[in-house]
Amino acid sequence: MKPLHELFWGLCLHCPPSPSLNLSRHAGGLLHGCSQVLARRGGQYQRHHHLRRFTTTHQHLTHPYRPSSIFAARRFSTAPVANMADVSGRYESWDQARLISRIRQLEHELDKRDAASKASGAGSGTPSNKNGAGAGAAGVATDGAPPVKKRKKEAKRIDSSRYSTRFIALKLAYLGKRYGGFEYATSASLPTIEGELWNALTKSCLIFPEDQDVVNFDCCEYSKCGRTDRGVSAFGQVIGLRVRSNRPVPKKQEDPAPAAGAEGDDTPMEGTEKVEEEQKEKKPEKAWDEINDEIQYVKVLNRLLPDDIRIIAWCPSPPPDFSARFSCEERQYRYFFTQPAFTPTATTVDGTPDGMKEGYLDIDAMNQAAQSFIGSHDFRNFCKVDGSKQITNFERRMFEAGVEEVKDVGTVLPYLGASAVDGSQLPKVYSFNIRGTAFLWHQIRHMVTILFLIGQRLETPDLVTRLLDVENTPRKPNYDLAHETPLVLWNCVFPGDDESRTSNDAENALHWVYGEADVVENLWSHYREKKMDELLANRLLDLVSRQVQGTESKAKGKRVFQGGHEGKLSGGYVPIAKKQLTPSPAEINDRWAQRKGFKNSDEMRESKNWRKVIKDAKQAAAAGDGDE
């Protein structure tokens, strides 16, 4: 057994020794590239370093794609999967959750090693056997000491060269409330959807990265359709990637040995007739079914994913040059809300100047305003501008926009009474539905904010038209952003889909193979759990509402609904036209370019590959700081 310091040698130390390992303290240090594991040995604390999969080279190896001669390009490959990628990993690229998990793993290994050391020490004092070895060394339990357990061998890595691969597409759904977004980021304080996908793909050995601890999808021709933000859910997300396949690797056919007879001798050698007969008697191999004989990707991944992330279907044969991002024709989003939006006051309808209770929304006015979004428009006043992206084109095309009632999902609260419009029970559930080719950063949440202001009759429906007129409104008013949790990426539409605008494009269609009944059973269990939470909260609210004297809020000021659980209290509402204006996109781009050493954004874009210019400048500056 190797000494402990040899197992962990190489781990960078930036923190002083401590008698105990504080997770919250050292996880923060690890996020900046620092790592420390302390082991207690004989009353002395030693620093141990870690050399697992560590390399000082950063050469990125790529392997040319060689499609199988049997199958269409990008569908199957018999090239070794081990050559997918060569990724060098360090702790700098790990997120917080992965670092904490690593610390716990190291602590567990140290505890096991300490226990084994104590057991072996206790066994060393026993009489030796005939071979001179103590009972403890032989693995026999001594008085007062537990038996020494044999160390388990580490799991061997699968030989990826024995497997073929295939390019597939996956359709997945997830509830994003407890996630920091879809895209993986090392600085994320919350787990991400891609991080969970990576764990499932590597544990199931569907992909073979060089280092499983470093999340890098470059090894599997990965692409994604949408990048949802923190807290946003998706019911129709699509990704494309290359994974391990059950398709048998074609056996190499060896050339027959040359005949021993003289050249030109037509006389058959002895025994050749028997060999030829045996070859004829061999049964032909069974035809391989690309669906029924394939790995059950949906079931395998769902066993390893959290309950709020589900693989719904997989596509066995995406079209050539398929990209989940660029092949998508349109994306559909839905933003859900209730009517009333928040707890209404006890004031009667006749007692309000505008004929509406506080907390209720004017759905007709919201629908009227939403129609103005349809078509091609410049949405710079309905998004957040990121200077690092250097976006100059804010025109996007919307195919559909409107507010619709969602049927059969409401839970009745008797104290609200019936709707004054159609007499139905309250509360109701509505959704703002939007379909478009592409969207800007936080675009839908900005659109919903404006619709809620119009629904509360704090603004008029023509506000949307005024904000879309970028000539008269070149700078966005500084208004708040709607809550993220009710937003859902509802569907991603590809050529050939039922909702596709080019539905006759069968050649580029995605033919989905959906999961079995176990997917529905798992989702039912998750739904049942949440339904009980909703039911208990509903009954509690109904019970208390019957006991208190009225429901009128005593809070002073105007409550503004922004999609959250309750209205935001403001002393007095400031109209959008009177709010402070934010910098224009050109000003934001210029400021970011100037911080990177350029005169303005135009000069930066003239350098063409400006990202490489910035990277080279940073490396040159770092090299200059190191010179004496």
UniProtKB/TrEMBL annotation:
Pfam families: PseudoU_synth_1. One of its GO terms (cellular component) is nucleus. The keyword Cell inner membrane does not apply. GO terms for molecular function: pseudouridine synthase activity; RNA binding. Residues 369-495 form the Pseudouridine synthase I TruA alpha/beta domain. InterPro entries: PsdUridine_synth_cat_dom_sf, PsdUridine_synth_TruA, PsdUridine_synth_TruA_a/b_dom, PsdUridine_synth_TruA_C, Pus3-like, TruA/RsuA/RluB/E/F_N. The keyword Cytoplasm does not apply. Residues 271-287 have a biased composition (Basic and acidic residues). Residues 111-157, 246-287 are annotated as: Disordered. Keywords: Isomerase, tRNA processing. GO terms for biological process: mRNA pseudouridine synthesis; tRNA pseudouridine synthesis. Belongs to the tRNA pseudouridine synthase TruA family. NCBIfam families: hisT_truA. This is Pseudouridine synthase. It comes from Glomerella acutata (Colletotrichum acutatum).
